[in-house]
Design the sequence.
């Protein structure tokens, strides 16, 4: 079959503005549906916390839905959903975002809500609201982390990968202890330091008149005073001096292996090479790890690999869940063979073509919705001040060649500079095999210990 | 410019009414019905071929058979190995997958529109000519057994299984779609082949296509690609009836769990019930959005949970009405009480005009949000195809919403909601839970993991 030629993504129409107070505004007009996405990024996240105060950026995100000077408690959602809109927010190491997609007729409502909490938040804050959100967040942590199989593993991996003083070493959601200790004074301080127009990017995407939109944004956000401007990102942490290995036991049936490496920051050409390589390794059923470990040798029930787009430096991950009866060291050795092969020999051109096409299809699929488009524009503006990279990122993926992938693998994916974690079943958690049941193991595999 | 008054929200401009985009429905010569919706903003095409059999077709002692068969469709055809299928579709950046739900079994594919022909050819091959090679069957069996094992660790999956078993008993929705350890071991290859052979027919099947295609060309290509499917009469599906509902409590023991997964509900009406629009509105008020009653009560008033939701789940037969949440262990009894009280309040007290209006505006307003992507449109068209809805179903639904008053809403909800018949499932540390929940009904305690030998 002929290998398809590269298809260029159509450029997105983008307009940029900057208010006197430093707020950056990105406009992207698309009138296909009568909707508008409003997306606001604050360049702050758990990277701006310190040990003893972890989880605060995220708890603070919850408080931003608790009302401000002119918006009552829970009225943010009430106003948005009352016109048929959707809204949410999320917190990450480097940033916190807030977004709503509304009927196009309610653009001004969204700007009223977002500007009220950027400019006039503190009158809405009370100790009682903080207490309720503390309980909500503790339950969020239980739901996402403490009551999930393998739930604590990700935290442990990041702890192994970064030195204890690096802000990526603690989890975005924070520890129960620190969540319990957060005070209203912390809320005030965090707000006045980070929630300022010159530390934010506002993107509007959808069906609106750009001239009118700029006027409205000026009207609602223009009077909010500037802060101290953007701050430098935390410094990159070099690669680990050795391999850091740990084992956890958990309420699980199947062992799971986590490998993690620090890599160049999101935005560097090498980061995109890493992302491509993660697809070569585990993107789809035709990928190397899936075909060999899941399908052929049946050492793994599932396998995943990804590069995370963090700012100080990136990180590269491989996660594999063992098939019943497969010890983690057997699975681990098989993964290492593939990582070594990626460093030793260049990827085949057909493999590269496959992952380039996969990324292209994923790009088109993702950018179908206004909220994802707006979020990506805010992301590129926040980190690089380059919203137009929304299409040039795809070009970078198409340009990178097999040699660059190999260089990346041999430089960054070294077994002597990585974090490695095993999560193993606690002995009491194992389900008993049914008497006389056929062995689940593949006969071709070496006998498990 | 006048000074900005922030004390009240700006008034919205006039709304643009939204309609479901037009599409073409055509019966193909092979006997299946094709639905094609042109959406040319994105150079992709998304397709799904659906059969009317589903997890509800599983024989009583062979739970998981339909899903097993459906997953095997993509694991090799008479002319392509599973590996060839994966390589052919993925080399184009496309994806293809097969599986069964509770109302249909389907093969789905997505490709760049320039690769439509290859995508359609692979989709039809997988949907028409599966080989069920011995090695693939055994591989798939091992994978499903491991998946079953993995679900023993997942509190949400355990809650879902216990809820289905309690609410539906021996009726078709009472087992797990995946099956269980013993049924998965018992299913023989001949049973797989027989199940498929009896159901290999275009009769009652549908092909839904959304994307960057030309409708006439698409229909002609589908006509050619699916001609070999045959049009035999498929076996009658089992009657979809739920057993009588009664109040009860099921506790699945997870000693030392950090939180408790909670489900409260009972069997509800099928998707194509004429009250669907009223039920959707009632659910929006109860637990269908952030500002619904259950979430504001459990999360924002009490801080018991990170979130609480409810739904009337879409099925061909009596799908569940349920509330789902995960709550702090010490709050399980109070949360259950609040949930049952909220269901009773919605059933017994009229909804105030403002709250009703808010629900209607929400449902109408978010409708276009779900039409942005091809997968969103495909899901909507699939609803029409699988549940046998009228072509103008969604436009009529949006229209009908504006005519619902508190009286009609209450009449409908009284018929479909009944807290006295709700099952309460709690997956958490059984010790305290069993006694605390006893006041809600007779308690059954289950173990989450089979006892070690």
Sequence:
């Amino acid at each position: 079959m002929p290998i398809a030629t590269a298809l260029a993504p159509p450029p997105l129409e983008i307009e940029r503005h900057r208010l006197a107070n430093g707020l950056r505004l990105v406009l992207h007009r698309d009138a296909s549906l009568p909707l508008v996405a409003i997306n606001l990024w604050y360049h702050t996240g758990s990277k701006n916390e310190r040990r003893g105060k972890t989880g605060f950026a995220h708890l603070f995100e919850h408080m931003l839905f608790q009302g401000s000077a002119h918006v009552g408690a829970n009225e943010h959602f009430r106003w948005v959903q009352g016109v048929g809109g959707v809204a949410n927010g999320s917190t990450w190491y480097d940033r916190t975002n807030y977004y709503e997609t509304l009927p196009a007729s309610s653009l001004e409502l969204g700007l009223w809500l977002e500007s009220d909490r950027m400019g006039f938040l503190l009158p809405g804050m009370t100790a009682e609201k903080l207490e309720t959100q503390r309980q909500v967040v503790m339950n969020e942590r239980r739901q996402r982390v403490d009551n999930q199989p393998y739930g604590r593993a990700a935290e442990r991996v990041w702890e192994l990968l970064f030195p204890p003083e690096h802000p990526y070493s603690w989890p975005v959601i924070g520890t129960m202890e620190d969540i319990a200790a957060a005070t209203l004074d912390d809320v005030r301080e965090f707000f006045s330091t980070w929630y300022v127009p010159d530390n934010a990017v506002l993107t509007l995407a959808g069906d609106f008149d750009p001239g009118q939109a700029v006027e409205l944004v000026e009207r609602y956000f223009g009077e909010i005073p500037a802060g101290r401007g953007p701050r430098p990102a935390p410094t990159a942490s070099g690669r680990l001096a050795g391999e850091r290995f740990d084992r956890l036991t958990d309420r699980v049936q199947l062992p799971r292996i986590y490998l993690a490496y620090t890599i160049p920051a999101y935005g560097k050409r090498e980061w995109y090479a890493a992302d491509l390589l993660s697809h070569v390794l585990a993107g789809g059923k035709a990928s190397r790890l899936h075909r060999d470990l899941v399908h052929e040798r049946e050492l793994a029930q599932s396998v995943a690999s990804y590069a995370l787009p963090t700012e100080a430096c990136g990180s590269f991950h491989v996660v594999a869940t063992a098939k019943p009866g497969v010890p983690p060291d057997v699975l681990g050795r098989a993964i290492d063979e593939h990582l070594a092969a990626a460093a030793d020999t260049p990827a085949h051109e057909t493999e590269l073509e496959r992952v380039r096409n996969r990324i292209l299809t994923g790009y088109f699929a993702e950018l179908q919705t206004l909220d994802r488009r707006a979020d990506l524009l805010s992301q590129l503006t926040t980190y690089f001040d380059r919203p137009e990279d929304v299409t040039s990122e795809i070009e970078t993926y198409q340009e990178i060649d097999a040699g660059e992938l190999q260089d990346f693998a041999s430089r960054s994916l070294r077994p002597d500079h990585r974090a490695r974690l095993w999560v193993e079943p606690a002995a009491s958690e194992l389900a008993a095999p049914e008497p006389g049941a056929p062995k689940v193991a593949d006969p071709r595999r070496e006998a498990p210990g | 410019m006048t000074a900005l008054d922030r004390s009240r929200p700006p008034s919205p401009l006039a709304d643009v009414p939204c309609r479901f985009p037009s599409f073409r429905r055509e019966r193909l010569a092979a006997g299946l019905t094709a639905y094609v919706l042109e959406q040319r903003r994105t150079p992709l095409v998304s397709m799904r071929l659906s059969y009317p059999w589903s997890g509800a077709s599983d024989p009583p002692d062979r739970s998981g058979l339909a899903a097993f068969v459906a997953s095997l469709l993509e694991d090799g055809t008479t002319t392509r190995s599973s590996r060839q299928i994966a390589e052919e579709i993925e080399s184009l950046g496309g994806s293809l997958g097969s599986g069964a739900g509770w109302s249909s079994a389907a093969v789905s594919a997505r490709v760049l529109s320039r690769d439509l022909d290859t995508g359609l050819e692979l989709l039809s091959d997988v949907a028409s000519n599966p080989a069920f090679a011995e090695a693939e069957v055994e591989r798939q069996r091992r994978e499903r057994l491991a998946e079953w094992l993995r679900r023993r660790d997942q509190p949400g999956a355990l809650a879902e299984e216990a809820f289905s078993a309690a609410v539906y008993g021996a009726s078709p929705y009472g087992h797990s779609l995946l099956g269980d350890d013993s049924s998965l071991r018992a299913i023989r290859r001949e049973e797989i082949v027989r199940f498929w052979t009896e159901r290999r027919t275009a009769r009652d099947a549908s092909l839904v296509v959304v994307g960057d295609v030309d409708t006439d060309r698409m229909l002609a290509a589908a006509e050619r690609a699916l001609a070999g499917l045959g049009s035999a009469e498929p076996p009658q599906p089992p009657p979809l009836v739920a057993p009588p509902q009664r109040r009860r409590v099921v506790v699945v023991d997870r000693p030392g769990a950090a939180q408790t997964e909670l489900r409260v509900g009972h069997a509800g009406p099928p998707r194509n019930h004429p009250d669907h629009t009223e039920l959707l509105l009632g659910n929006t008020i109860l637990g269908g959005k952030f500002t619904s009653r259950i979430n504001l009560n459990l999360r924002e008033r009490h801080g018991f949970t990170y979130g609480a939701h409810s739904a009337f789940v879409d099925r061909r037969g009596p799908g569940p009405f349920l509330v789902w949440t995960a709550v702090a262990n010490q709050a399980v009894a109070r949360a259950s009480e609040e949930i049952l009280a909220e269901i009773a309040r919605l059933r017994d007290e009229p909804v105030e005009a403002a709250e009703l209006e808010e629900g209607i505006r929400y449902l109408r307003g978010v409708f276009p949000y779900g039409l942005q992507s091809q997968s969103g449109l495909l899901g909507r068209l699939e609803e029409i195809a699988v549940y046998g809805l009228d072509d103008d179903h969604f436009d009529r639904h949006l229209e009908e919403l504006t005519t619902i008053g508190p009286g009609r809403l209450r009449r409908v909800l009284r018929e479909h909601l009944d807290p006295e018949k709700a099952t309460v499932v709690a997956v958490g540390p059984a010790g305290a839970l069993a006694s605390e929940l006893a006041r809600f009904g007779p308690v059954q305690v289950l173990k989450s993991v089979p006892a070690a030998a």
